[in-house]
Amino acid sequence: MADILLQREALLCRLGEGLLPHDFAGLYVVSEEVDRVLRALPGISGPPEERAEALARQLEPGLAAARQQFSEYLTGASVFAGIVRHAHLGELPAQTLALLAAVECSPHRMRLVAYFQDNVQLPRLTLASLGRLLGGGARALAPDAPLRRAELAESGAEGPWATRMCWPATRVLWALTGDDSADPALPAGARRLAASAGDGVPARPRLLLVAGADAASRLAAARKALPHKPFLVSPLPADDAEWAAVVREAGLGGRAVFLELAAPLTRAAADRIDRAAHLDWVLGSAGELALDTLPDRPWTELRLESAAADEADWQTTFGTRPEPAYLLSRDQIRLVGAAAGGDPARLEAGVRRLAGGHLDGLAVRIRPHRRPEDLVLPDDRTAQLDELVARFRLRRIVYDDWGFAPVAAPGVVALFAGPSGTGKTLAAEIVAGRLGLDLYKVDLSSVVSKYIGETEKNLERIFGAASAGDLVLFFDEADALFGKRSEVADAHDRYANIEVAYLLQRLEAYQGLVVLATNLQRNIDDAFLRRISVAVDFEPPDERRRRLIWERAFPAGAPLGERLDFDFLARQFRVTGGVIRNAALGAAFLAAEDGAAVTMNRVALALKREFQKLGRLRTEAEFGPYFPLVNGDDDAAPA
């Protein structure tokens, strides 16, 4: 059809005008051209009408047959027919697109177009020429026409309207040649998904809102709502070029567009969605979108509550049943599966990588290596730690399978209270190790800021990054952040209370494990205490436990030159486990410096240094026979 139309126009031009374009057509106007234009104007003697009509009648049967063949072609399964159907194009827009594509793909046709447009600088069809060729074809490229709404064709934006050239989008031409590469102008991160299987094909919503849970859950719900429909998943386009690419790419493949929103829609974005009415749109968001921001078209909404990966997600990713130890969301299991290569044996390593890098500068990562036997606690305290591990590991069973409602969120908050050195940090590390998670110790100096609002921003970064990975957040000296709110005496008190209120709100929404460590439990705000799942009191060890700690403080490979008197050390020195471990380490360095074994004298000297750090007096009642050594010349060598 395109070739017949171009042939007719060229012959009519040649017959009617009687002149061929000269070598520099369009660069200057000669008198012969003026005469030719004057003859073509209404009311003036123009080209022989009977000759033109005779030629048109001669070509009309072939053109009519070509139009009929083209109409039948549009009902087929070709790429072009699919584009026409997906874009909901009528007969005239379809003919226009076919004609533009035929010219664009052929240099010979471009020479023909330049001939009958009488300008070598116009190798593409102009709006005026489209009007002559298709009898209104220019209207198919009007700003609000289907071709333009679908972003399938373009026209020049400068110069006189009649001479503005028109062309199909490059992505359309690649598709027609059999190449289905994604449009390079798509927003960064956009991806195409094949259609998913489903039971039946329900009535498709033109606009679907999916709110709640996580991004992967929202996408899964959208694909379930639109079975057998391929998807284009994209962040919100940032400019006109990205919007055009999204609309065009979705239309070419008959895809629904899933936009993951991090903020409410702008009016301009809503208008772009309204403009592309031929597409199915899905808007995913963590919370409900305000009504006054939505596009002006009917919509359906899905509200999701749980973001947890289900058994199907685990089977797809790892080929296993869900692991109760990891309450992963669909977003997280996708990331973990990629990191682990789908190997269940590498699941733990993949989970550890979830938050890697996001918390740098705000928290210190501790990869657990201490064992439960390294922590010496009363049996009741050890049982509490076991309960903490079980509470975190079995959340899915209690909340999901049994239907218990969590107090706030399914996360777990533990409070470790007790003097320094009683094992709070060690206990947090051991709990993280038993769960197969990394421990992130929050650096309060990098979190708390004197500037209004900065502390909240830092806390949001911490909880936001922690939400991206299963891990244990450890707040040491937590009363600095979780302290009691005070009466408002000045602006500083008011903003300090705002920080505490914000932290409580964020803590209640967090779904992971948080451990708060404090030396003084009475300094913790009561609102936080009500949110505590497990509270463990750490006390200085008694004599029996001090002896166990002394024994375990020296590894099997340590060179012990004589039998260390653990009974004496446990009985005489009422110190915490932290002091004992520091003293054992100090004694080991004294022995290494002298190239000798660890002896009681070196342990006594190491204890002396610990007492000096604590500002604690050394007494003969405690050190007994070692008192002269620790109370004499600091440089005296041990016996």
TrEMBL record:
Alphabetized UniProt keyword annotations: ATP-binding, Nucleotide-binding
SMART domains: AAA
Domain spans labelled AAA+ ATPase: 410-542
Domain of life: Bacteria
InterPro entries membership: 26S_Proteasome_ATPase, AAA+_ATPase, ATPase_AAA_core, P-loop_NTPase
CDD domains the record matches: RecA-like_protease
Pfam annotation, one family: AAA
Gene3D superfamilies reported in the protein's UniProt record: P-loop containing nucleotide triphosphate hydrolases
GO molecular function terms listed in the Swiss-Prot or TrEMBL record: ATP binding; ATP hydrolysis activity
Family per similarity comment: Belongs to the AAA ATPase family.
The protein, known as: ATP-binding protein
